[in-house]
Specification:
About 90% of the residues lie in helices and about 0% in strands. With about 100 residues, the chain is mainly alpha-helical. The longest helix has about 60 residues, at about 1-60. This is Apolipo L3-like protein.
C-alpha cells in the first residue's frame, strides 16, 4: 500500500502538468476555430453583397447607358475580396 501511494505521488504532478498542457492546447484550438468561423461568415457576407452589387449594376446598365457598369466592376471586386477572405479563413481553420 505504501509503495502504491509513493508511486501515485511521483506520477500525480506529472499527470496534472500534462492535463494542464492539454487544456491549453484545446483552448487555443477553440479560439482559432471561433475566429476562422467568424472570418468565413464575414467573407461569405461580403461576397454576397458584392455579387448583389454586380447584378444590380448589370441590371441597370440598359437604363443608364452603361454608366452603371462601374458598379458591376466594384461589385465583382468586392465579391472576389469576400471570397478570398472566406477561403483564407477556411484554409486556416483546416490547417492550423
Amino acid at each position: 500500500m505504501v509503495e502504491l501511494k509513493s508511486e501515485f505521488d511521483i506520477n500525480h504532478q506529472s499527470l496534472i502538468s500534462q492535463i494542464m498542457k492539454l487544456n491549453d492546447i484545446t483552448d487555443e484550438i477553440e479560439s482559432v476555430h471561433k475566429n476562422t468561423t467568424m472570418g468565413s461568415l464575414v467573407g461569405s457576407s461580403i461576397g454576397a453583397v458584392g455579387g448583389i452589387t454586380a447584378l444590380v449594376g448589370l441590371a441597370l446598365s440598359p437604363f443608364t447607358l452603361g454608366a452603371s457598369l462601374s458598379l458591376t466592376t466594384v461589385g465583382a471586386v468586392v465579391g472576389a475580396a469576400g471570397g478570398a477572405t472566406g477561403a483564407v479563413s477556411n484554409f486556416t481553420n483546416v490547417f492550423k
